[in-house]
Fold this protein.
Amino acid sequence: MSKNDQPTINRRQLLAAAGGVAIIQTASGEQIQVADPAIPADPTKVPGSPATPVGTRSPFEQTQRRVFGGAISTTPLQDLHGSITPAGLHFERHHAGLPTIDPQNYELLIHGMVDRPMKFSLAELKRFPATTRICFIECSGNLPIWANAKTTPQSLAGLTSQSEWTGVKLATLFRETGIHPKASWFLAEGSDAAVMTRSIPVEKALDDAIIAYAQNGEAVRPAQGYPVRLLLPGWEGNTSVKWLRRMELSDRPFQTREETSKYSDPLKDGVVRQFSFVMDARSIITFPAYPVVLEPGWIEIRGLAWTGRGHITSVDISTDSGNSWQQAELQAPVLPKAHTRFRYLWKWDGSPTRIMSRALDETGYSQPTRAQLETARGAPQGPFAYHYNPITGWQIESDGTVLLAPGPG
Amino acid sequence: MSKNDQPTINRRQLLAAAGGVAIIQTASGEQIQVADPAIPADPTKVPGSPATPVGTRSPFEQTQRRVFGGAISTTPLQDLHGSITPAGLHFERHHAGLPTIDPQNYELLIHGMVDRPMKFSLAELKRFPATTRICFIECSGNLPIWANAKTTPQSLAGLTSQSEWTGVKLATLFRETGIHPKASWFLAEGSDAAVMTRSIPVEKALDDAIIAYAQNGEAVRPAQGYPVRLLLPGWEGNTSVKWLRRMELSDRPFQTREETSKYSDPLKDGVVRQFSFVMDARSIITFPAYPVVLEPGWIEIRGLAWTGRGHITSVDISTDSGNSWQQAELQAPVLPKAHTRFRYLWKWDGSPTRIMSRALDETGYSQPTRAQLETARGAPQGPFAYHYNPITGWQIESDGTVLLAPGPG
């Protein structure tokens, strides 16, 4: 292999590979073994490939979002480590696809009950004092009611992801425009073809809202709102309006279609809860989980916990189907409104059991069971349940099979 | 544009674009204006593109590493925000290119002065208790002595980058193999064609060394050591051996070519410093910096500070050529051995001046001037100066031009 050769593995074809040999699938579906000179048996014997302007993943790494139709893709929680979601694997949820926005033409309008209506270019937004924070964004519909025993963490809860976001505090922009004393809500409007709109209390703007232009160090990705999105830490994802182009201040909510026909939560007795912004504490074990097959011995149970109300204070683990609970280790630093990695070392003796995780947050809120949720709110309605954060269990069979325990879907 | 159309902008051709129109450069070098249906004048009027398995950057975002030959590429510090470096923009330094390593065939050997020589597969490494931390990796040669007034932050100091790393503590593996009481050093060997080798004190292994298999949530990138690298937080980058395949315990250093002919620091009087592992505190202003042209008014001075010795405790800023210093704001959370984002709001009155930053760390160490460094160690030798961390200034001219101040190169 010459110094400038790049690996030539075709990802669509590759099934498996070992030193110098690859197993590929042909167009007709046949699996054949081929010599692959791009996979040296001894990598010390061939010069490697040169430095490049932008790095890529190893061709052996195929981790992907799972795409549902054109408007949803889910983060592969079971394949990820730590707390940061790579930008290319951040979940997507959009109502009319990703718009293509020219950053040179971009403008953000703030008007309505303000002293000085203003437009800001992207360059102007970047000149304001900046702030950075790591936080999760979770879709309020982050649980498919069709979940069954063979549902993975990605399909069950992959509508939550975490990035390091940078931008300007919305409070800073509102100081520029001035806002009327009676302005209590603002409309956030996206420039996608759905013209996504939500009403947000001004109180949140003055608390911790960010007009974000960077994600994990670089420009926000198109799927997350390029060039600029609203970021409302801890609140349901749809309120962090992507491709943000306009904010209008008012003394009342705007009652947009996204908060009347959608993103409202049917409760019992026909009552509907509106403006349920904050995401409740939740946790999920990402290992072991379906489709892992375990062998008896020491296992590090791993997962993520998060809450829209501040810090996760504890994650309890049960390895005996909920009879007893022990505290997992939380990876420091535990940040507010952020995915918190938990780990718990456990020796599985080969007996069937159920493992579960339960998140607690700084407000004293404890992640509820499904029964507790349904007593309070009734059964979820589909296809995705809103603000539905039940304790999730994985059933481990004696043959090592791990299946999603009934209940969460 | 149909729902499935993707933007068709050719990055090599694109010079500028505005609603519906792109300016491109033809093969002959001519610049022409073309209608570009992929850039809608009003993005709300056309359906966007659908969800995808792996997301990409906006075609308008061209931020890149700068490649020097085949063996170096630098992080575009001036284009990044916050503290995380996107994996594709993490600097590269390698001595024989990037090896292609099949993760199924990967093995890590630990032998020498151990009780039980052992080999670990990648799957076995991932089963051990894991740990995650955010830290920088900086090449010890992170300053080109050819730097001049028109050197950017990327070219001056782009051999430092930051990731969230996950892996198994090396101490955990050494508990598995057992190590002899007299084992005080170990050899770390890479499986690249240079067979990169360094001697590392066992003390560091037992302190905070990590065998890392994940970077920013996903598998370590090939340019950073896929599938497994050694991570020695705070130490010069070459000791965090990439593509790690072997560790040999011994009672003395191995005196490899990388620690005799290279990675040793000539001092005054012909003395050479060997095993200078820890990276000293350093800072650099990334905005404003060459080639930015400023206009008078409020400016947020931004940059990064870091130290291999723990936490950054303060970054001082001078906006009057070093006559007075004020504390910058540090972005929380300030993590140990990590890039720390600093910001300082300043009103430039249009007069020529020099702005500078000075990092202090928890040991009381203060980033030195070039004169202090040269008094202690003599002038640096090239082409890259090792462990050379002088206070860096940017000269602002009355026309707003920003140039690298003499001294750091």
In short: Residues 170-177 of chain B form the longest helix (8 residues).
